[in-house]
Amino acid sequence: MDVSVLQQYAPMLLRGFGITIFCWLFGTVLGIVLGLIIALIQRYSPKPVRWLLQVYIEVIRGTPFLVQLFVLYYGGPLIGLRLDALPAGLLGLTIYGSPYFAEIFRSAFRAVPEGQIEAARAIGMTEATIIQRILLPLGLVSALPALVNFSIILTKETVILSIITVPELMYQVQRMSTETFRYVEANLVLALFFWALVEAISRVGRKLETRITKHLIERT
After folding, report:
1. Of 16, 82, 180, 184, which residue is most buried, by most CB within 10 angstroms?
2. Per-residue b or e along 39-62, where b marks 16 or more CB atoms closer than 10 Å to that residue's CB
3. How far apart are CA 118 and CA 5, in angstroms?
4. What is the sign of the dihedral through the CA atoms of 22, 27, 32 and 37?
5. Residue 120 CB contacts under 8 Å (≥ 6 apart), including other chains
6. Series of mean pLDDT values for 10-residue runs along the chain (220 residues)
7. Hey, where are the domains in the chain?
């Protein structure tokens, strides 16, 4: 292994890793928010609206992220949507992740005991209060492991953004490989960076799960 090559390209790789983290964080946070909104609308909306949202979920989940990204980036101008590579990548990750997060929340909400919700209605709680005080706290405990797991999956989907020239880690690794022909070193760096990111997300997820569970126990 040629360490000098890694030292030479270290600033470029670190810059790419920073963009990877930004893309993942942006796509994950907005995907969770959009997924939560979809899950709540599905729970409380009329049947036609639920049907339309389910079509959206099935279409996005049933097609590869690469295809969605191509349609968004290269097909967008046909309908007047002209986006640079980075905004297109961020929007693509958000759209791709939202149906999966919506299904995670939907399943978590169904796991909340119906008796608690009926009891809250019986004492006069509004639906907004029920969502805030019962549905979200209890549902989040059930949803958190799956949310963390899919967030980890999204980290790996960021490599696809390199295809539309988003200068994230994979793009920089490919550039390093092309310029130096050091494919082993380049891909080893790629693997180590992603391992570190996944390990960090896993640890944060475990700590969040512990804190949320402890908080709910203290409330009861």
Report:
1. 16
2. bbebeeeeeeeeeebeeebeebee
3. 64
4. positive
5. 129, 130, 133, 134
6. 79 94 96 96 93 96 95 91 94 97 95 90 90 90 93 95 93 90 87 95 90 66
7. 3-219
For the CA atoms of 46, 48, 49, 55, what is the dihedral angle to 10 degrees? 140
Q: Cα–Cα distance between 160 and 199 in angstroms, integer?
A: 21
What is the helix (H) or strand (E) element at residue 123, kind and residue range? none
- Say which CATH topology domain 3-219 has: MetI-like fold (1.10.3720)
pLDDT tens, position by position, 4-34: 788 888 999 999 999 999 999 999 999 999 9
- CA proximity to 140, closest of 32, 212, 83: 212
Q: What are phi and psi of 41, to 5 degrees?
A: -65, -40
* Residue 103 near residue 57 (C-beta atoms within 8 A): yes
Distances (CA, A) of 153 to 32, 96, 101, 149, 219: 14, 11, 12, 7, 33
Task: Give the residue carrying structure tokens 């029920």.
Answer: 130
DSSP class of residue 166 equals: -
